[in-house]
Amino acid sequence: MSLHERMFGLAGHAGAYQWLVRPFFGKLHGRVAADVAAAGLADGARVLDAGTGPGLVPLAIARAAPGLRVDGVDLSAAMVERARRGAAAAGLAGRVTFTVADVAALPFADATFDLVVSTMSLHHWADPAAGVHELRRVLRPGGRMWIYDARVALRRGEVPGVPSRREAVRTGRLPVRLVGRLIY
Ligand SMILES: C[S@@+](CC[C@H](N)C(=O)[O-])C[C@H]1O[C@@H](n2cnc3c(N)ncnc32)[C@H](O)[C@@H]1O
Predict the structure, then answer these.
(1) Would you say 182 and 157 are in contact if contact means Cβ atoms under 8 Å apart?
(2) Which of 2, 17, 83, 174 sits 20 to 30 Å CA-CA off 29?
(3) Nearest Cα to Cα of residue 74 among 57, 95, 93
(4) How far is the CA of 124 from the centre of ligand 1 (A)?
(5) Tally of CB atoms within 10 A around 92
C-alpha cells in the first residue's frame, strides 16, 4: 500500500480523520446522500461507496434513503473498524456493511450494485483506471457511477474509451466550486 493510499499515515487513525474532516466534507456528504436519495432506486437496491473511510457517506445514504442496502469498502482496516462501530451505534448495521478491500480488486460478483459512489478517495488511488474498471465490473448494466473529488483530481478517473462527463458541484457558501463529480 502506497504512502498516498495510506493518506500519509492518517488512514490508520480513523477517529482523528473523522474529527478532522467533518467540517470540510460534511456538506459534501449530505449532497451525495441527497443525490442518491433522488436517484429513484427501488427498495432493496444496492449502493457501493468506494474508499468509504469511517463510513460517514453510507450512514448518510442509509438515513436519507431507508429502502436501500449500502456497502462501503476501504483499504484501511482501521477505517473499516471505525465505520462498523459507527453503523452499530446508529442502529444501521442491518442495512450497511463495511469490508476491507482495494477498489481495484473488489470481493463482489459482477453486476452486484445499482449505483456506485465515491467521495474524496479517487485522488489517493494508486491506479485510478484499474479502480474505475473494477467498479464498473460490479455495477449492473445501466447502473450509474458518481465519483466526487477535488475538480483538479477528477481527470485522473477518466478512462480512454469509456464515456464519462465531469460537472462542478456546489457544496457550501464558497463562490468557487472546488469539488466536482465524474459521472459514468
Ligand atoms: C480522504 S479519505 C475519504 C473517506 C470518505 N470517502 C470521506 O469522504 O470521508 C480517502 C479514503 O480512501 C481510502 N483509499 C485510498 N486508496 C484506496 C484504494 N485503492 N481502495 C480503497 N480505498 C482506498 C483511504 O484508506 C481513505 O480512507
Answers:
(1) yes
(2) 2
(3) 57
(4) 7
(5) 18
Q: Cα separation of 184 and 176, whole Å?
A: 24
Distance (Å, whole) CA 2 – CA 5:
5
Which pLDDT score, from 0 to 100, does residue 120 have?
95
DSSP code of residue 43: T
Q: What is the pLDDT of residue 175?
A: 65
The structural domains of the chain, ordered by start, are 7-183 (3.40.50.150)
Tell me the C-alpha distance between 147 and 97, whole Å.
20
pLDDT of residue 64: 97
- d(CA 16, ligand 1 centre) in Å: 14
Residue identifier of the C-alpha nearest atom 26 of ligand 1? 53
- State residue 21's pLDDT score: 76
Q: How far is the CA of 3 from the centre of ligand 1 (A)?
A: 12
- Residue numbers in the chain where pLDDT is lower than 50: none
- Tens of pLDDT, residue by residue over 157-173, are 999 999 999 999 987 76
